[in-house]
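Retro notes - structure team

What went well: the batch runner handled both jobs without manual restarts.
What didn't: labels got mixed up in the shared folder, which is why I'm recording both outputs here explicitly, each with its sequence directly above its tokens.

Job 1
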Amino acid sequence: MGTTASEGSAAEQGFSLSSVYPNPVAGDARIALAQPAPQPVRLALYDVLGREVAVLHDGLLPAAADLAVPTAALPNGVYVVRAVGGEHAAARRFVVQH
């Protein structure tokens, strides 16, 4: 899943996700979210077919947040973590390889 035009413009306005690290992931990983001001954010994890496999966070987050991406229960494969806050969205792809 690549960055869409709306996701690119969100980054320009200060809403962005860092790359998932480490990548590939063998255990738990981290991702950082930056946004202009605190607001409710939904952070969800999707498999390569676009099916939601987990909601990592759904609620208020500060302007800068470092979040866990637990992967121990996930099978090996490619995943996308997507953050939606207000009118902004950003996504990052990563690989789980136990």
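Job 2
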Amino acid sequence: VDSYQRIFQRGLVYRYGSISNFPSNTYPGHNALGSGAWAGHHGIIDNTFRVREQGVDASPIREIFETEYLLGSAHANLPVETLHEAVVRTFGTLDEGNLTASINEPSTRGAEFATLERRLPGGFQLSDSADEVQVGDETYPLPRADLQDYAGVMDNGSLQTFAELYQDHINRGEEGLPIPRYTIVNFGSTDSAGHAHGPHGDHERYTVISRVNQRMGTMLDLLEYLELDDSTMVILTSDHGMELQDESRSFWRARALATAEVSVRQAGWYYYLKQLDFEIADKVEEAQDVRLTLRVTDRDSRDNEERVGVADVMVNVVNGGVAEEVYTDDEGYVELVVTPDDGATEILVDFDSPDWNGGREWVGL
């Protein structure tokens, strides 16, 4: 029996699909599914992006493991709760007999069982079997997959882990883990095939979807074996869709930015303005002058413990006083001797660099 139909006949279907998270990419989408929050709220805004508060680039799609630290990083004062955390808040932790699980799925924060975070509690061991899955006394063959089909290998591993986790209380008795109250499982082969051969190609339609259908059928049979099929909500979804692209449109935004002499740094598909910041490191009044020591830094590192200094920035007073033009050293420090105008309590300082977007800032005296 077709596994998709087994789900559809007992539930609801969005006839025309649903609105995806933007951007419609893997890691933002998975974490939107797992938290109910948009990417701009949960903080993982793309597969590769810049964490400006820390002044570093992040690429969860390359890191794969232990990426939950990025969730919520975009807005520290805007808490985002995952479904794992909501279940724990409502029913309790593993010590209280409850468990949530994330199996080869990027939505992991709050899950005590999370393969991509390498959290396997209670002595649980991942199986090294690659050919079959055991459901009670019945053996189910796994779809064929080899190292050329890495997504298929991962999906077989997801099914293997799912089956063993849900039967762990049977296989290991009192030492086994309880059946999870909430589990999110990722089958990635449809996504990989869509990227490689097109979302409507024969490989996707006749090979990959049928293999996922076989894996899902085993999962549903397992729920029936455990007598959970009438008490379990099964939600089948995907993290993004695909559509034809207009090849006549250029995506080289960097050319327009360079022509406009706007300095940027790139992370993934994003361009971030290279902005300067400053701090007063020291101030000494000397007769009619004020000796200021400034440190010019990368604004992206302003919330980090170690600000990054910027060298060779020209610093010039343009209003409120008189001082010679000076340049920052390798650590971003510069000493500015200012003769203030009568009654001036602040000066307007110009920061200029060919590699950065300059600007003017008022500095208190």
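One thing worth noting from job 2: Residues 320 and 347 are 5 Å apart (CA to CA).
We'll revisit the folder naming next retro.
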